[in-house]
Amino acid sequence: MSSHIHPTAVIGPKVCLGKNVTIGPYTVIDGPVTIGDNAVIGVHCVVEGHTTLGDGCQLFTGAVIGSIPQDKKHSKKDRVVLKIGDGNIFREYVTVNPGTVEGGGTTSIGHNNFVHGLFARGP
Length: 123
Hints:
Layout: E1 4-5, E2 10-11, E3 16-17, E4 22-23, E5 28-29, E6 34-35, E7 40-41, E8 46-47, E9 50-53, E10 58-59, E11 64-65, E12 81-84, E13 89-90, E14 95-96, E15 106-109, E16 114-115
Parallel strand pairs: 1-4, 2-5, 3-6, 4-7, 5-8, 6-9, 7-10, 8-11, 9-12, 10-13, 11-14, 12-15, 13-16
């Protein structure tokens, strides 16, 4: 099967897409990003930075994957990496960042994880 990329999606020139990838409306993928086979990336997602997303991963609406670390010491010159294994599911509005230089520079996520946002529950 071939990939399906919605016409409103923006895919940068350094992006490497696997086979049978689906990319939804208004999604932006930019930088040295590698997307594995059979990945499904939903609506309004962002994937950027030095990010590898494994085979069969799913990103739901608004997920932000690979943007710079949420650390004031981070510099644009820092080489930081995000490596995500196969079969991971990232639910709505989840954010996953690469590591920091002080922490070794790499965030690694294994295979077959389910990542979702936290919420507060009332009484």
